[in-house]
Each structure stands twice: as structure tokens, then as C-alpha cells.
Amino acid sequence: MSHPITSLYRIFVVAWVDSCRRSAPIVVVAALIIAAMASLYVVRTVAINSNTNDMLSPNLPFRALARELDRAFPQSTDEMVIVIDSANPDLVDDAAPRLVARLREQPALFGDVFYPEGEPFFRRNGLLYLDPPELDALSDRLAQAQPFLGALWQDPSLHGLFNMLTLALKEGPASGQSLDLDPVLSAIADVAEAQAAKHFGQLSWQELMGSGGDKRRFIVVHPALDYATLHPAKAAMRRVRALAAELSLDASHGLRVRITGEAALDHEELESVEKSVGFANVLALAVACLLLIAGLRSWRLVVPVLITLLVGLICSAALALLMVGEFNLLSVAFAVLFIGIGVDFGIHFAMRYREGVTVVGETAASLRWAAHGVGWPLFLCALAAAIGFFSFLPTDYRGLAELGLIAGVSMFVALITNLTLLPALLALMPLSLEAGTREAMERPLPRWLDLSRNSRTIVAGSLVLAAAAAVMATHTRFDFDPLHLKDIRSESVSTLYELMDDPRTSPYSISILAHDMNDARRIADRLAKLGPVSKTATIADYVPDGQDEKLSTIRNIAMFLSPMFLSMPQPPPSAAATKVAWTGVVGALAANTSAPA
Fold this sequence. Notes:
Blueprint: H1 4-22, H2 24-45, E1 48-49, H3 61-72, E2 80-85, H4 89-104, E3 110-114, H5 120-125, H6 132-154, H7 158-171, H8 181-196, H9 205-208, E4 216-223, H10 234-246, E5 256-260, H11 262-296, H12 299-324, E6 327-328, H13 334-359, H14 363-390, H15 398-428, H16 437-442, H17 455-473, H18 491-499, H19 517-528, H20 547-561, H21 575-594
Parallel strand pairs: 1-6
Antiparallel strand pairs: 2-4, 2-5, 3-4
Helix pairs in contact: 1-14, 1-15, 2-12, 2-15, 6-20, 7-21, 11-12, 11-13, 12-13, 12-15, 13-14, 13-15, 14-15
């Protein structure tokens, strides 16, 4: 004997389903109108928050400290980092200022553009940030090259370069007045060979001077973000790429421009989520359709179940936006869960209805049969699934909690639509089983499908699988790195991983606000003694030490270099003069080659 509550519920469900059958046209039209209104609401209000920080409760202590840090240093939030690379350091020195100038022409889109190497402070004081040995080595190289730098200052062209090489080749390395010409000549040969092969090639004066030079530049931008769209940084990123194309900052000119940073990471992560979630939803829906076609084998069953599923999905999405306002990177996946679980409700009701047709024959009676048979089990399934999802609510992981809320509520949406809309659709498309179908349903299952005949084998196999899973579970590891949630193939992520190889640009850092400088130094000293900490820095570390010694070296450099800047550069030479200078280089090379060792 069933419990009174169960009996009452079954009576209610049977009456409800029967009323939906009698008013089938009204129910279907009303459901479609509600779905259309829900669709319009979703299209107009849908938003996805791609910020992984917002997937955690704002009440957590470290989130409160992060907000305090953002207030103190607002320039460190929502930034977009433009990375310019080249094998030639001279090219990045030239490219970065040109791009910065174009970015600053659009303050409405790029509110703040910071280019460290272009700042007057660093251009004036940059040498003070070199270590004393590095500064001494630079001084020695400049002193050695001073005569030739003077010649190039007066004639900074191929004509001047060829004349300088001719002079150096004639005087010989033993004079003490010449450069080591092997790197210079090799570099010229490399450029000539590259251009002869139709590849980009250009000499680097920094490399010829032996300083190597930094082959990467960073431009930090705080773009205007349009949060009214699904891609707030899209306009800014498109404009950066358009400007790079206009300025010919591309591989064919020896340069590579990439975009990373918080704004770009969020943008590309949202694009990745949009594509992957869309693909997952389509795939789940396609698999559900195949399952319905293979299992129900009648369009009069497949179409109603599919329509009910879609209406339930749309209504669930609208309710989700009403409850939480916006999706996050986890809750947006509720659609796949709804399709996978919601279709089961329809399958159960449709199969019981089909069975009712074979038992009682008439559509109305068959629907009541189905409602009586599966109404209570479907409620228990919806309740059990919802409880499982609602168990996510107490967590401080907001992304998971919102997913649990949305998915849990959607289970009741699936229950209601399958006990309301589905019976009405089935009543409008009544099922008529072909001759022989009743006998086919009553025919015994094949032995290999009859679970009752294989109970011992199934139990034994389940125990073996459980034991194997328990052993494998001991090797489970939790990945704490949120970067591993991102698509490594996207430009922003791949660029970030490349920058992580340099400790100066690694994102793995902890920021601590101190009350004063002394407090900051004490914290830094204590942290530096910890094994997991590779380096600590305070604002004091950005003030170069040993300035008196370095200034003395810089004054010496200025003393022997300044005379060469007193003369005015010569006008550009003619092509004929350049050809004559090249002939002189060739002659000097031939003379050196034929000279006895």
C-alpha cells in the first residue's frame, strides 16, 4: 500500500495531466508564448562575467584585501599588455614609440598608455639601473668604438658605414682603433643573404656594438571596457591589431605584436567559453536527438519530447538570469546539464505513454496511465537531482554555488514542462502503434540484456571496477592554478606562459600593503627567508643603489663621447657616392684576404 502523500500526489498529477490534455491547444500556445518572451528576455539581458576572481565570494578576506590594493593602485587593474618582439632590438626600439603615439591619439579608447622605455625619467636615468660591471663594460665598448661612432654620427648611412669599414680594414685590428670586424661583417652578410632570399633582414647597431639589446618591449594600456557587451575589450583589441597592421608591425617586417594582460585574458577566455559551451550544447542536443530517435522510434514521440526540452531550457535560462543577473564561467554550463538530465524526464514519460497505448489503447487513458506510473518517480528524480545541485550553495566558491542554484531550479522546470507541455503535445499528436508492436514489447529480452539473469556477473564486475577506481583515486591531485583553466592556444595565454619564463614578468606574485617603508622592509626580509619565495621587492628596490659610483662612470662616458656630437651630420649621400664607398669596402676586403698571414 502506497503512502498517503504518494497517493495524493499521483491523484494530483493524473488530474493535472488530464486537464492539460483537454486544453492541449491552449497549453501549447501558452507555453510557446512564455518561451518566446523568455527568449527575448535572455537575448536582451544575457551577460557572462569572465573574471575568475568574481567566482569567489567577495566576503573572503583576501578578496577584501584585493579591493583595497586596487584602490591604492588602480593602474594595475583591467590592464592590457601589448608585447612587441623582434630578433633585432633596433626594430622594437623603433616600433614601440610609433605604436604608442598612435594609441595616445585615441584617449577615449585607450585612456592610459604607459611605455616604460619612452618615459623621460627612464630615458634620463636608465643607465643608473645597470649594475656597475655592466656599466663598466658598456663604457669600455663605447670608448673602443668612439672614433667610428663619430664617423657614423656625421654620416649615418650606408655610405658612412662603408667608409668606416674601409678605414677599419686598412688600419687593421692591431691599431687598437678598430672594432672586432668579424661580427660586423658576418651581420652584414646575414642581412644580404636574407634579402637575397626575399626574407626580411636589417642590421642592428646595438648588436654590432656587442650590447645585444633587449628584443622585447611592453606597452601597458588601460582600455575602455564595454560591459554592455559579451566582449568588453573587443573594440580595444581590434584597434590595436589594426594599428599594428597600419604601421607594418608584422612578421614580414621582422616584428611580432601580441596582446595579453587581464583584459585580454578575460576577453579570450570568454570567447573560448562561448565557443566551447556553444559546441557542447549543440553536441548534447544532437546526441539527445539521436537517443530519442533510436529509443522512441516515432516522430510523434520524438518531436514532443524535443520541443518540451527546448522550452524548458529557454525558461531555465531566463530564470537563471533573474536569479543571479549574469552567468559565470561555470554556471554557463548549466545548459549541458539540463539537456542531459531533462531529456530523461521526457523519455520516461513518453515510454510509459507508449506502453499505455499498448495496454489501454486510447490516448486520454494512456496519458493518465503514464502520469500515474511515472509522476511520482519523476518528482523524486527532480528532487534528488536538485538536492545534489543545491548542496553547492553553502560554498564560498560563488561560481559553483550559482551553478548549483541554476541547475537545481532547472530540474523543477524540467519536471513541470514534462508534466504540462509534453502531455498536451502528445495529445495533439496521438500515437498509433502498428500491428505487432504489442507483441514486440511483450517479447522477452535477449539473455545478455536481461539484468536479472546476469546479476552475479554484474555485481562481481562492479566490485572489481570499484576496487580499481579506489586504487586510482589515491593518485588524484588537485590543480590549484587557475591559468590551467584557460585555453593555452589563445594568444593572451600563450604569450603569458612565454613571459612566465622570465621572473621579472611572472604573474605568480603576492602583493602586500604595508603601513610604512620600515614595515615593508621588515615583511620583505621575513619573506625572503622562506623556501618557496624566490625574491622579494619593496618600492625601495626601484631606487638604484651605488649612484655616486655609477654617475662617475657616466660622466666619463659623456666626456669622451660629447666631442663627436659637436659636428653637424652631413646631408644624405647620392647613390653614386654610396656605390663608390661600397667599392672601397670590397677592395679593402680583397687586400686583407690576399695579404700574407
